[in-house]
Amino acid sequence: MTLHVAIAGFGAIGKVVAQRLDQGIEGLVLAAVSARDVAQAEAAMADFVRPVPVVPLARLWEDADVVVECAPAALLRELAEPALGHGRIVMVLSCGALLDNPNLVDLARRHGGRILVPTGALLGLDAVIAAAEGGIASVNMITRKPPQGLLGAPHLVANDIDIAGLTEPKCVFSGTAREAARGFPANVNVAAALALAGIGPDRTTVEIWADPGVTRNIHRIEVEAAAARLSMQIENVPSDDNPRTGRLTALSVIAALKKLSSPLAIGT
Length: 268
What we know:
By secondary structure, the chain is of the alpha/beta class. It contains nine helices and ten strands.
C-alpha cells in the first residue's frame, strides 16, 4: 500500500521532508504541500521530479492519507480538525499546541483519525514511554540554546527579558512543560513531547538557558522511575534556515513516515 503524504508548511523542516519524498521512499508519495507564499513554494519545487499542488491548509486532507504539520503552532487546529475529522493521520511537530487542544484527540477517536508525534530533536522517548508503564517519580529537562535561537519568544517579550549581547549563560525560564510550551512555542516542543511520553505537562519541569557559549541546541533529560534512572543529553546542530529548530527534526519526520509503511519497525 502506498501512503500519500501532504506537508503543511514549506520552511526549514517541510522543504527537507518534501525533497526526500520526491527523491523516492518506498511506500510513500508526496501528494501536496501548503505554504504561506504559494509562488515561493512552487519555485522551490522547480527541480522536483514530480512537483505537487500548493493548497490551503484546510484542504490538505483531500489529497493525503497523512498530513505532516511543519507550520506555526497557531495553525494546528486549522489543518488538524478537517484532517482528523475525515479519519486521516496527522503528524504533529508543534506538539506544544496539543497541550492546549486536547479535544483534537477526542476528534481523532470519533472519526478514526490518528495523531502521531515524532521524536523530533529529542532522544529516549521510547524509554520514557516504557518507564511510564511502571511508574515515574520525576522528569526534568534543561535546555541550552544560542541566544539567537530564542529571540522573540513570547515569554521573553512578556517579561522584558533581554538576551542580546549576553557574555555568560542566563536562565530565562524555570517552570512546567505546559508553561514552557506556551512561552516558547517555536523552541521547546521537545518539552511537550517529553511530557506527553511521561508524567504529563504539569509534573514535567523545564529550565531554559540562553547560552552564548554553545553553538548547538542542547537538551539534558533526567528521569527517576521505578524501572530505571535515565540520564540523557543530545546536542543538535541548528538548521541553517531556522536556528530555532535542529536539523535532526526533519530527519525524525522522515524516519517516522518510513516506519508507517515499512514491513520492519524498530522501537516501541
